[in-house]
Amino acid sequence: MLCVSVKEFLSWKKKQLSKGGDQQSFEFLLDCIGDISTRDLNLKILNPKGNLYLKKNLEFLESVWEEHLLSSCPIQYLCGKTYWRDLKLKVTNKVLIPRPETELIVDIVFNVFRSKSEKLIFAELGTGSGAISIALALAYPFSEGVATDIDQDALEIATKNYINSSKQSNLKFYCGNWWSPLESFKGKLDLAISNPPYIPRDTYEKLPKEVKNFEPKVALLGGEDGLQHFREIIQKAPSFLKDNGWLILENHFDQSEKVKQLLMENKFTSIEIVKDLSGIGRFTIGRYK
Length: 289
Ligand SMILES: C[S@@+](CC[C@H](N)C(=O)[O-])C[C@H]1O[C@@H](n2cnc3c(N)ncnc32)[C@H](O)[C@@H]1O
Prior knowledge:
The protein is an alpha/beta fold. It has helices at 6-18, 23-32, 38-44, 58-71, 75-79, 104-112, 131-139, 152-165, 201-205, 209-212, 228-240, 256-265, and strands at residues 2-5, 51-54, 81-84, 87-90, 121-125, 144-149, 171-175, 189-194, 241-250, 268-275, 281-288. Strands 7-6-5-8-9-11-10 form a seven-stranded mixed β-sheet, with helices on both faces. β5 (121-125), α7 (131-139) and β6 (144-149) form a beta-alpha-beta unit. The longest helix has 14 residues, at 58-71. The termini are far apart.
């Protein structure tokens, strides 16, 4: 650990933030690479005559901050980590950075399956960093989870994240197109979840550069109208779900009614649109028969 006086640190911090960027990303950098949490930092700086301890020196932290500002690369990729619910996850540019709004999908599952001792069989399609599946596998220790992705590199990261987060062995990863690696689970799933790529092509072209230039296209683009993957996932879901099994989907801010329609056309019942914390219909859920 490197010792730096609070006085020196505060003047360095002011200089860095004057170059641009947001406070939250800066605090993330200090936490991930400097190994000092915002809470600890706030306590330390109460004493301007004291010292604080960092894992890396100020020059190194400054170089990462400047790279972030110059390239617009998300700070999570530069640090190689992110926080999601109570998980600390490895992320590289092979996986989407799991979003805070997606955290709610786990709470939706908690509302549907209230007992944590349920022996659920669940599948997540398009797991990316593994965030959702890992959270569920940890929360329901008697469950059996399977998580798929089309991208083998993403699955390697998801597998590492699972090993780092859990001593359990109730989650397995498979590579392939949506349902195709799950043939042996036909008719067996209590629950399937997906946050598929859902950005329509014209919106994708206009995404901010910190997203478009860095996050994987395969994780974002949902075909011309954004609904291409929902069609495939919803049409095939009935043969994989048990009777009354649930399908829980995350969608773009304006897609809920269309996803609901697709669920109705495919004979799902108990269909509900669930709002995120900003009041946006972000999730569409239903059960098969
Ligand atoms: C929006 S990201 C979601 C990642 C993660 N579940 C999350 O919520 O943060 C969509 C994921 O679907 C995967 N994917 C894209 N097309 C796929 C396909 N045809 N079959 C399986 N997975 C696919 C991508 O590689 C990506 O990891």
